[in-house]
């Protein structure tokens, strides 16, 4: 007679010591009434006993006891080394930046050229029409033009790419926001 089918997995877990306390109580109660399951458990324990590791020597046990401390101390040492490396790299980069600023020839601040200013900003008096145009410009979606080109292959439309280049050149040549105020 073999062990009960519904207890096979529980017996294996009991033999390895991997059962929860409530489940172990239930399985042990079943073992009191079922001789076939007791024989199966004994056979499993004998088989697992053959594969069990030998007991640790005192030296091995000492190494195993200090392993977490050794691992943490090595991790901390590595963290300190990395922080020192980052700090040194940061100091060297800052020193190089200061050196470049000191050695750079004097540069006069950029002044906006009148040709790059929008016509609405050149006029001394603002009209209602200029205010409306400025409001429409502020509310415009800058990606709407790019999204409208989804049906058009960009390689087949050289005029679109050249207009983008002009806009980029105008953007790069225009004064920064802080200088124009």
From TrEMBL:
UniProt domain Putative zinc-finger: residue ranges: 4-38
Top-rank taxon: Bacteria
Spans through the membrane: 84-103
Ranges where the record places region Disordered: 150-181
Keywords recorded for this protein, A-Z: Membrane, Transmembrane, Transmembrane helix
Name of this chain's protein: Putative zinc-finger domain-containing protein
Source organism: Cystobacter fuscus (strain ATCC 25194 / DSM 2262 / NBRC 100088 / M29)
